[in-house]
Structures are given as structure tokens and as C-alpha cells.
Automatic annotation (TrEMBL):
Keyword Methyltransferase applies: no
Domain Radical SAM core: 31-194
Keywords from the named record: Iron, Iron-sulfur, Metal-binding
Name under which the protein is recorded: Radical SAM domain-containing protein
Xref: InterPro entries: MJ0683-like, rSAM, rSAM_sf
Pfam families: Radical_SAM (PF04055)
Species per Swiss-Prot/TrEMBL record: Desulfofervidus auxilii
Length: 316
């Protein structure tokens, strides 16, 4: 679906890299190429941040390569750097992709490891860089349904699921390890047996052998987005799956509501069995499901190297 938005290049005043604060990302530094994101996922928590631009505007940090030239030097070689904790570096805009490419090239050439979660598609012209440094790159493709109307409803600015999986095949062909993330599973829409079956078959056909799963978490701002941007009957149906009146703190400082534990456990077990039949390892995200006994941290044993943590990257 086409959503109109404009890109405004700005200079980032604070450091490009910041130490991640949440769950298994705590071991890494994080970077965002833009403030705001043109994919406009209905469930996006970053859209509720105080610094998020209004809908229709995305700010591009045009000076990121300049900042990284200095900051990357201060980190021990092999530092894991996570892209996209609050945005998307593969939004389909030439200027965003150019800054993404230059930023990644600086980090990889300095010997760091990059890890990105994306709903976008990595362009073909990243091939030489990615093939050369494939041992230093880990990719996770976020996809929860292959139905076009699902994407149009919940992720209206993002490429449809089929395109994301085509992008995953390209990365695998370049020698990059690729996982899939099925998150957020939305009750009645993407957690159904049929949807998961079709998706897992397509994931298997791509050559992906590991997935991470988690249900939708509600935050106050996400509830507003669901009410404002979905048809009323659909918003009501989804919100009805979060019956607990109180708010919980799950992993981070943020208050949220979850689908009842009994339902999460039942569906996660079913997906694990479906994956097992196809030879796909299914990991339940522990950061978002600490109350599920069989959940696991997905980054801690993924091959990201250990490194000596600096208190903060220091600008020269
Ligand atoms: S792709 Fe990520 S950052 Fe962009 S709107 Fe969707 S959830 Fe938010």
C-alpha cells in the first residue's frame, strides 16, 4: 500500500551509537538511521515515543557516517551493533539506503558485527559489501503473514511478506545467516493454525531454519493507534484479547498488557510442534515472555561475540 510521507535530512546531535537497554540487546550497541519510519505498522511502539515525528514525516540522520567514523574507532573490534531498535534502515528511499550502506560499511570495515531486524528488502547493490563481510552480519526478517491484506492492514507502508522472504533468499545466497521473527502475533489474524502453517512452509522453502516468536504487547499509545487506524470491529476484537485491566512491567520500564499466559503457552507450543515437523527451530522470545518457562533469549547464544563493554562510546 502506498502511504505518502516526506523525508527531511537532519544532523544528529547526540552520538550515533547508544548502548541498548532492553533484554538480550543489552550486550550490544544500537543505531537508528532515521527518526520515524514510513512503514507505519499499527502496533509500532516507537511511534509513541515523545521524539517521534508526526505521521507523514521521517527524519534522516544524514551525518551518521561522519559520527561513526569517530565512534566506531573507540569500540573494541567485534562489537555487536544492532540496527533498527526504533526505526527501519531498509525503507525504500535512495537517500536512506545510501546512509544505511555507508554506515554499515564503516562498521564492518572497522571489524564490528552488525545485526539487523527488518521488514524491508536489502537492495541488490549491497551485494559486494555483504558478501565480503558475511561472517560479520546477522539478519532477521520480520514476517508474520504472507497475506497481502494482512500487511496492508497492519503494516501499510512495508513490503508485503512475500517480498521480504525473497529478500531473505538473496541474503542467504550471499552467505549471511538469516532468521525469521514472527512478532507480533496478532490474535485471530496471524496466530491461526492455517496462517502459521503457510508461513512456516514458505520460511522452510527459503532455507531459514530458525524463527523467534512473540505475541503482540499493548502499550497505551499502541491502543490509541489500533483504535485510530483499524476498522472499529477489528480493533475491538483484538483489544478483547487483553482482558486483564491492570498494566505490567515486562522486561523494560514500559507498562504493557499481554495476551493471557495460558493462551500464549498453548499457541507457542503449537507453533513449536509445527516448526519441529518442518525442521525449523522455534524460540519463544524471553525478553517479551519472561513468564513462559520454555522461552529463551534469542541473541545471547546466536554467535555474537563477547566484547569488553565501554561505558559509552566517546567522541574524539
Ligand atoms: S518497521 Fe519497525 S520501526 Fe517501522 S513502523 Fe514498523 S515496527 Fe515501527
Amino acid at each position: 500500500m502506498c502511504i505518502s510521507w516526506r523525508l527531511i535530512p537532519i544532523d544528529k546531535r547526540s552520538p550515533a551509537l547508544h548502548q541498548a537497554e532492553f533484554g538480550c540487546l543489552k550486550r550490544a550497541y544500537a543505531i537508528n538511521v532515521t527518526r520515524g519510519c514510513s512503514f507505519y505498522c499499527i502496533y509500532c511502539y516507537a511511534r509513541g515515543y515523545a521524539i517521534a515525528p508526526s505521521k507523514g514525516t521521517v527524519y534522516l540522520y544524514q551525518n551518521l557516517p561522519l559520527l561513526l567514523q569517530k565512534e566506531a574507532r573507540r569500540l573494541p573490534m567485534g562489537t555487536p551493533i544492532i540496527f533498527n531498535t526504533a526505526s527501519e534502515c531498509f525503507q525504500n528511499h535512495p537517500h536512506i539506503l545510501e546512509i544505511t550502506y555507508r554506515s554499515m560499511a564503516i562498521l564492518l570495515r572497522r571489524g564490528h558485527h552488525i545485526n539487523f531486524l527488518t521488514k524491508g528488502v536489502v537492495p541488490k547493490w549491497f551485494k559486494d559489501l555483504f558478501c565480503r563481510y558475511h561472517h560479520h552480519i546477522q539478519a532477521t526478517i520480520d514476517v508474520v503473514s504472507l497475506k497481502e491484506n494482512y500487511c496492508n492492514l497492519f503494516e501499510p507502508g512495508a513490503p508485503i511478506g512475500k517480498k521480504r522472504l525473497e529478500g531473505a533468499i538473496r541474503l542467504l545466497n550471499w552467505g549471511i545467516p538469516v532468521k525469521a521473527r514472527l512478532d507480533p502475533l496478532i490474535p485471530f489474524f496471524s496466530d491461526t493454525q492455517e496462517n502459521i502453517e503457510n508461513l512456516l512452509l514458505a520460511i522452510k522453502d527459503c532455507g531459514i531454519r530458525k524463527i523467534i516468536i512473540s505475541y503482540l504487547e499493548l502499550r497505551p499509545r499502541i491502543i490509541e493507534q489500533l483504535r485510530q487506524e483499524l476498522p472499529a470491529s477489528i480493533a475491538k476484537l483484538i483489544l478483547g484479547c487483553f482482558p486483564k485491566p491492570s498494566w505490567d512491567r515486562v522486561g523494560s520500564k514500559t507498562l504493557c498488557k499481554q495476551v493471557p499466559l495460558s493462551i500464549r503457552k498453548k499457541v507457542y507450543q503449537r507453533i513449536r510442534q509445527q516448526g519441529e515437523k518442518l525442521g525449523i527451530k522455534v524460540v519463544v522470545c524471553r525478553c517479551k515472555n519472561p513468564d513462559v518457562s520454555f522461552s529463551q533469549y534469542c541473541l545471547s547464544k546466536s554467535g555474537l561475540p563477547k566484547y569488553k563493554r565501554l561505558s559509552q562510546p566517546v567522541l574524539l
